[in-house]
Input
Amino acid sequence: MLKRPGLQAVLILLAIGFCVGAYAQVTTVGTISGTVRDPKGEAVPNAEVLIEQESTGFSRTVKADDSGFYIVNSLPVGRYTVSTSPSGFKKTVAAPFDLHVSENRVVNLDLQVGLVSETVTVTSDAEVVETRSGDVSSLV
Output
């Protein structure tokens, strides 16, 4: 036990400061989600979606649910491509895009009927607007 009460108070305040500082850290990951749809706009259930980071080769494969929705959380920031090639459809690849810190990027995949050996590239030039939350963020 410490004999100096002033030193004890300082140590307690330092411990509290470290706990608060650790809590205030920001996340360094993002999320990619979207829907896989056929040419009629109907959901394609259980479609395998491949998410690949270009610079590192990191990849993750997920399955869309019964409504064609997929989500991949906790992805490191970087440049990604998203693709799928369900049976009976052409392979669909979303054009490469940058995933930023805390971003929730929506990448919908609209399929076309054809052979898997054929590829459709989906491009998007529009600015991405976050519609699922009221969070405001910026990249410095």
